[in-house]
Amino acid sequence: MKEVFLQLNVALGIGCLIFQFLPLEKVNFRSRTTIARILVFSSLLSVCVFAVLPDSLFPDMFPEILIEIGRDVDSAKNDTKATTVSAINQNSAITNSSKDQSKFLEFWHWAVLLGFLFMALKMLLNWLQLGKVLRGSLALHKIGSVVVSISDSVAIPFSTMFLGKAFVVLPSSLVPHQKEFGIALRHEIEHHRNRDTRWAVLLELIVCAFYMNPFAYLWRRTISQLQELACDESLISQMGISKHDYGSCLLKVAEMALGSRNMYVGTTCMISNTKSEDHSFLIRRIKMFNHHEQASLRKWQGLALGTILSAFIFGGVYFAHAAVRSNSAPNPGTPIFNQNIQSATEGILAKGLKKFKASAGFAIVADPETGVILASANINNGFDNSLSENWALSYPVQPASALKPLLIGSAIRANVTQINEMHECENGKYEFGGEIFHDYKAFDRLSSADTIAQSSNICTIKVGQKLGATGIENGLKEFGFGKGGVAKDFPSARSGHVPSTNGINKDKFIGNIALGSSKQAKFYVTPLELVQAYGAIANGGSLMKPIDTAGNQSPEIIRAVLSRQTSLELQDALREVVLSGTAKSIKHSAGKIAGKTSTADIGNNHRATGFIGYAPADHPKLVAYVVLFDPKGKHRVGSNTAAPVFRDVIESALSKYNP
Description:
By secondary structure, the protein is an alpha+beta fold. It has 18 helices and 18 strands. α11 (404-413) crosses α14. The protein is elongated, with a radius of gyration of 34 Å. It starts with a helix and ends with a helix.
């Protein structure tokens, strides 16, 4: 809501600036008024419309900066056999609101709200005063639907809409001056004919809502004065009133206004209700008498020009939304975690980084049944100076082999494979989409379950071919990845980037994204998204909305992403990862862990090793994700580095968690 309010303020200003710089010397004043109104309306409407549209309707105008990186080396004994992929630039800017910033935003929120309430109260009092004047006036007659009255309490003729009725109020002091009285009456009737009174009310509401924005006041002044000039022009050119008589009436009304400049909210008058009717504007109106004939553009042409400008406004706001949504900063706010689990996780992560001499790392712990995020720990020992507080929730990561169970789950859901279906592994080498892909070991044939357990790149691509590029894209979004997905509202988190298959070679899309990375499609996820996706496997197939431990939200199922049977099949495959697959190093864990290893070179000689899973394996209570950056040693892979840290984190959390 705050973002929309700021966007409305910016759009209001941009629309005003566009109008001020338009070359309108040859445009009549009614057309100028029409153009100005269209710009105001389109500036505000475009922001409101695009703010409620889903993220899926916006293209990725400026995708995150990516770099070419090394290889997915999950459990690789020979790194030269791993496939070339892409990952996220570790120097991509990631920002997060600090506690001080959160306090400032909260203060700003209340300041704006109180200011709005003050302006609304002031406007209400002015409306009450206007009602009092109207009730005290003497109704003379009706012209169409307009009630014409005279009043002793006003010095300036004005017209207004009040409680759905149209009024023209003339000062009683003008009655003896028959000619001026008639001209003033026709002037105010013209305001009603041109719907100026309705716009007077709308402009007051805009000033009330955007009282801190100088462009709101500038719009009110500009349109109010244009309405006066348009009425002047209309009466002289179309109604046959002589310039001399009209000028005399203007001077007479201006003279009467010297004694009282007070005007009422939502009114129009011959001397303008912006309290800016100075000599310069009066001179401008009189000069218009001789020059209005030079205006060549008529009302319908002004409407056409305004429509074209409106289209530019809508286009600009659309592309601005696309740019913002494709490069959104982490969500505002600071989440609240389980302090016991958070403290223990931070300690274990620190020991893990020290043991493996890693330059950074993070660990996230969650309850898969409720979606509660219990802990989010991160440490940065010089890996990336742009990282800030709670970056674990928003860091753009290459999921690498951690994506394989989700891809196979999507394929089973789409009924294009089964958990026991066998796939040809091409003896460790496979050419697809113009690239050569390898496995760390030459497999002959593997089932879908064994593809997960042994982390076969080639068999995963084979499953991806069955699912298809569009099926992969839809499957990822179904699991909550990308804009508008599972991470869209959680404090300090952000959404990943799921590219569209449009404009991308389908084989390259499948070959790269199936392995959790892409140099073609610029695919990445964020840790919170991956944790919630694995939570769906652990809890029987339900994607849960992530919530913190503040206790002000109830568990919420976003949707069912897997059947109960499919989730159990994937659980069995993830258990085999530890028992006989790539994570055998932790198979003797007392917690009976299930999960998936991941390892990726991420450019500039950097490496990210990870393990994501849950425990206990036979009845999951907690899910966790651990990633270490740049661990040192001979075997720098997920099974030897992140997996042992994961084991310690989740076993500690299980001992402290009492839901």
